[in-house]
Automatic annotation (TrEMBL):
PANTHER family: FIDO DOMAIN-CONTAINING PROTEIN (PTHR13504:SF38), FIDO DOMAIN-CONTAINING PROTEIN DDB_G0283145 (PTHR13504). Transmembrane segments: none annotated. Keywords: ATP-binding, Cell cycle, Cell division, Nucleotide-binding, Nucleotidyltransferase, Transferase. One of its GO terms (biological process) is cell division. This is Protein adenylyltransferase.
Amino acid sequence: MSAQDASVRAGRYIRQPTGYRAFIPAPLPPEPPLALNGELQGLLSQADRALGRLDGSVLTLPNPDLFVFMYVRKEAVLSSQIEGTQSSLQDLLAAEADLFDETMPRDVDEVVNYVRAMDVGLSRLTELPVSVRLIREIHAELMKGVRGGHLQPGELRRSQNWIGPAGCTLATARFVPPPYEEVPRALGEWESFLHEDTTLPPLVKIALAHVQFETIHPFLDGNGRVGRLLITFLLTECGVLHKPVLYLSHFFHQHRQAYYEHLQDVRDRGQWERWLAFFLRGVIEVAAEAADTARRIQLLREQHRFAITEKLGRAAGNGHRVLESLFDRPIVTVADVKALTGTTFAAANNLVTRLAELGILSEMTGYARNRRFRFEPYVRLFTDDIVSEDAA
């Protein structure tokens, strides 16, 4: 492949009437075709095996959907942090539990919206394929009532956007996506690629589709988050995983600079193969981490069930009932436990106290009244790697 072939493999920069240069993407798949051999072939095989192990690990859980519940929230936090939000997983869980805290970051609503957009998208996949229509619906959910929410939620942009450091202009931007007049055509070609019958492996197709979406940048805001949501939707739609439990935002967050550089190298130099290698390494790493977390959840559940049976006596039945509910709702009040168990407030308060003594629950407000309790050991399984990364 010549240098000229490579430089226009993903598309071309075209000078616009007002002088700036915008990128017009070429349709997928790339030409010349991808060289899926050597290292890429090995990485693809490793990624397939890692996904198989993850699928098996998750399906052995008593209720895989509870694993999905927390993983969606971890993904929401990390994908939003890539875009500059400050909210943590603890903030998100507290917000969902209607726990007001004046120290909570104001951008937590953006993360709450991400969770809702993910849930809406996954439910819509049962009746609507991944398509321009779906991404517009998801974008509307994502941007509703938050920063950037005035920038046409759910609507394709009607003006030029650009990517670069704060204060940059069209002339100095790092990357200028196609003019808005080109967006419907480019998205139509992108949608056709998603659903045409090709010999490309599903992971390769998903990796290509993600870059193309980010290159088109069809919305005025929220493109990065929608593009990362698309990876999960496409993995689910093509049946690579039984449950949507592979979220690459952790890998992209850890390697943020490399992530952006690979996207730009595809546009500038047609480096699709290098992007694919990066993407597949992310799949391998994140799938292994998720499979390990699934195993740790199983072990944690068994340890807590044993402790409740051994220590709570006649209250063990209600203790088990509360424990199972905590995997779905890891922040509770005494009133929640009372409603769940059908006991008196005093009995529920006593049960919460004993669960706290076992290290299952931790009081998180410091209040004497209106106390909230968190399933600390479970939440920690999803936050330890985020904390250690941010502290590095």
